[in-house]
Amino acid sequence: MRRVSAVMGFMGFALAGVLLMSGCQSTGVNEGVYGSDNLYGDPLIADIPLNNLDGLPTNGDRTLFAPVMFAYDSAALNPAQAAICEAVASHLMGRGGVILEGHADERGSRDYNLTLGEQRALAVRAYLIELGVSPSQIQTRSYGEEKPANGNHDESAWSENRRVEFAIY
Amino acid sequence: MNRAERRLFLSGVMACGAGVAYGQRVEVRKSGAGRIGISLDRLISDGSVEGQEFIRVLRADLLRSGWFEEQSAARLVVVGRVQNADVLRAEIQAIQVADKKRVLSRAFSGTKAATRALAHRVSDALVLAVSGKPGMASARLAMVGNRSGHKELYVCDADGANLRQVTQERSIVVAPAWMPDGKNILYTSYKQGYPNIYRTGQREAVSRFGGLNASAAVSPDGRRMAMILSKDGNPELYIREVSSGSLQRVSSTRRANEASPCWSPDGSQLAYVSDSSGRPHIYVLALKGGSPKRLSRTGSENVAPDWGVNGQLTYCSRQGGRYRIVVADPRSSVSRVVPVDGADYEDPSWMPDGRHVVVSRSVNYRSSIYLLDTQEERSIALKEGTGDWFSPACSR
User: Fold this and answer.
1) pLDDT above 70 (res B130)
2) Distance (Å, rounded) from C-alpha B96 to C-alpha B93?
3) What is the mean pLDDT of residues B372-388?
4) Chain A hits for B214, Cβ within 8 Å
């Protein structure tokens, strides 16, 4: 319920979000790995420019919320982790802000992983905006593969490293 | 080697080049095959420390160039004297044994402090005189190293010597790229908290929009800068006019990422990475107009392109579970994998000779800097150990 009212509060993007949540087939060209076309995190949100960084915090508390995890080479938000985003959105209602820190695993080029991490952060941003968080409360910061959570080199470390962390301020 | 022989040798090289363009399979020589036998025994120093160093560096440069092999029955004899007076002075002649023709006869001089640089100049002059192609010995390399505990920017010579740490930011440096002047370097750093683009020798950021500012590449004429920005809500390719600061958005792919732009030698085209097809591939875009053309067809990931002055593109391709270096002709789209050992090779950057690429090579997740010969099955270690070294870029 909280989610629906939040969506209603953001009229400009509510329609697409509600249609998708009510089960309409998406007709997008790039089917995401979860069988949906960015069900969570409408790519139309991508048209909202990011904030100018002047005067904004550069750090926050990462311990308040668990990171959301991603599949290999994917920026599609996993529906199983949407609840984390919803908790973040409710925390941010009318106060503070968040730096969404996008990360990638070490495979692939550093350059490409920077944009992949950014796209992951932007997918979370899009969903937070759908949930009613003001774009002015959200910054994105991609670290690419530069700051792994787990420094090992195996499948389980890589899956821990494909993430977006919430630095709350 | 007489003139006819030299022509033959060169036409062999050209045939090899043509094979790159038209043949699906290219014969890559085993190391050492087809090299010119050279004698350096008559290269004599005055016994000074600098004179001896000069000869040592010159010999290493010539052998590294890929054109020469030291032989007693040589086709080419290098005769020279190096003297250390107020300045270091080298009188160098290169003589074809068969017809006594001098292909090079010149005096070079430089300060004692620049002994290595003088040897590099002589090596490049010898390569040019014999092969008709530029050498790589005088090039400079930029790279990222983590031996201080932070990822900082370093530079060194093309032979790995003269290593110098450029940044002391205690932050993260990513993706260095040389400015066309060969002096300054653009890179992405988090020193002000967010990933912004900086230039060496300049405190303020070159680009610091909200979100990602990365992968800066300046056009060969120095007038435009390509980069990846997410300020409008998605990572896209942009071009900035350096003088006016005006910004043009080049890509518009809401559902996809762009990364790693690089310029064609004439500045009329860009090659870059896009995953708009679902997987990262290399695209080429003519800036006059038209839609981007996908260049890479195989491999599950194709990333990190670099466009050489030889007109060829090199990039990194994941094939058979390994990262390999590919050389591709952007006109014919014909590509070939540079064959080497089973290590992972990434982030290729052309050396000015249009033959070697500098790469990062990883084994067991330790990364070092190597030169790869794209004509021979040969790789040369430049920087190994004392931490990891990656993202090499060669000056143009």
Assistant:
1) yes
2) 10
3) 90
4) 111, 114-115
Q: What ipTM score was computed for the predicted complex, to two decimals?
A: 0.87
Q: Which of residues 113-132 of A touch B (CB under 8 A)?
A: 114-116, 118-119, 122
d(CA B50, CA A101): 52
Mean pLDDT of the residues in chain A: 80
Q: Which CA distances in Å does B197 have to A148, B175, B227?
A: 22, 10, 9
SS3 A55: coil
SS3 A38: coil
More confident residue, A20 or A142: A142
A:B CB pairs within 8 Å: 138
Q: Which residue of B has its CA nearest to A113?
A: B259
pLDDT at position A53, please? 82
Q: B219 — alpha (psi -120 to 50), left (phi > 0) or beta? A: beta
Residues of B in contact with A111 (CB under 8 A): 174-175, 214-215, 228, 259-260, 273, 303-304
How does pLDDT run across B220-241, given as a tens digit for each residue? Answer: 999 999 999 999 999 999 999 9
Residues of chain B with C-beta less than 8 angstroms from the C-beta of A48: 233
